[in-house]
Amino acid sequence: MKTFCPNKNDIESQWHLIDAEGQTLGRLSTTVANILRGKNKAIFTPHVDCGDFVIIINAEKIKVTGNKETQKLYRHHSGYPGGFKEETLGSLRNRRPEAVIEKAVRGMLPHTRLGDHQFTKLKVYAGTEHPHEAQNPVALKLESKLA
Question: Which domains does the chain carry?
């Protein structure tokens, strides 16, 4: 008996549409990361990109629990002296609501070239409009823990 290892020809990618309205940020992000990696498929292989495409709409209506709106910080450095910047989740959400979900999902993917490639399959939009109707995305229903 030989072990099956899928290659590019064996993998069929689908498009999933997820409405983020009322969803908790972390729970949504783990589900999306698993779909991007392909962990929801029987042919999952860690070193092969067997994941699907994910479209997230209504990113501006995501929920967070506790005091994360004011206490969660996103930090980065420009590389220049004095270039350290901090931004709260609330201010990042006001400026770029898509970035909140993108950063959460990116942190859950492998930090390798494969993870970079899987991350390109994520499309996040602040409102309900998206330009991917031609791909016929399948609506994926997630139950919300917060009511």
Answer: 14-64+95-139 (3.90.1180.10)
Picking from 69, 53, 30, the residue whose alpha carbon sits closest to that of residue 132 is: 53
CB 35 within 8 A of CB 18: no
- Closest to 109 measured CA to CA, from 34, 48, 2, 5: 34
Neighbours of 64 (CB within 10 A): 16
pLDDT digits (tens, 9 = 90+) for 107-142: 999 999 999 999 999 999 999 999 999 999 999 988
pTM: predicted TM-score of the whole model, two decimal places: 0.91
Residue 28 class from Cβ within 10 Å (0-12 exposed, 13-18 middle, 19+ buried)? buried
With vertex at residue 129, the alpha carbon angle to CA 141 and CA 58, rounded to the nearest 5 degrees, is 50
Helix or strand holding residue 90 (H, E): helix 89-95
